[in-house]
Design a protein that fits this description.
Layout (H helix, E strand, L loop, with lengths): L5 E2 L2 E7 L5 E7 L21 H18 L1 H9 L11 E6 L4 E3 L22 H8 L4 E9 L8 E12 L2 E8 L2 E2 L1
Antiparallel strand pairs: 1-9, 2-3, 4-5, 4-8, 6-7, 7-8
Helix pairs in contact: 1-2
């Protein structure tokens, strides 16, 4: 698009060849085929960058270490709290896949989301748990859009960081990236 990079959502399939390397294949998510022609009509664009996402999650982890788990979960789950707004959604999950706090998914707090899949079959919680073996990291996911009353899935950059070995804090930054 006229020298602009658009990082569009892909559907990927990855399989291990052996214990040292993997093979993957990807296609453009069918919901975003208009991006091939340069059209951004109806496409949510990220207003922040990955550094903002890391900073928001780190701030929540630091808050947790200062005020304790109980107070942190109450604050993370508060839609008007310290971590609400700003375009980045902060939530907390346990190491077994249970959602501990989320201001936008209160009906799912306490539920185990280990086997939850997006509409394309990706097990996003399981993927996040695998990634956390290193203590932190990014994944891309399709998450429910929560603006304007829509639940239509939107691509998001998701960052997770361990608080300890039993739970972590997660932040999601919805939309596609354009540079």
């Amino acid at each position: 698009m006229n020298g602009t990079w658009v990082f569009a959502p892909k559907l990927s399939y990855v399989i291990p060849v052996d214990e040292t390397w993997w093979v993957s294949a990807s296609i453009l998510n069918p919901d975003y085929t208009q991006l091939r022609s340069g059209s951004l009509t109806g496409v949510q664009v990220r207003s922040q960058n990955p550094e903002d996402l890391v900073a928001a999650v780190t701030r929540a982890v630091n808050y947790t270490r200062e005020y304790g788990k109980e107070q942190a979960l109450a604050e993370i789950g508060n839609p008007d709290g310290t971590f609400a707004g700003g375009g980045i959604n902060i939530c907390a999950e346990s190491a077994d896949g249970t959602l501990l706090a989320d201001p936008t998914r209160k009906e799912e707090v306490g539920k185990n989301l280990l086997d939850a899949t997006d509409e394309y079959g990706e097990k996003t919680t399981l993927t996040g748990i695998s990634m956390l073996r290193n203590g932190t990291g990014f994944v891309h996911a399709m998450i429910p859009g929560r603006t304007g009353g829509s639940e239509r899935p939107v691509p998001a950059l998701v960052y997770r960081k361990k608080v300890d070995d039993t739970w972590w804090i997660c932040g999601s930054l919805p939309g596609i990236e354009i540079r």
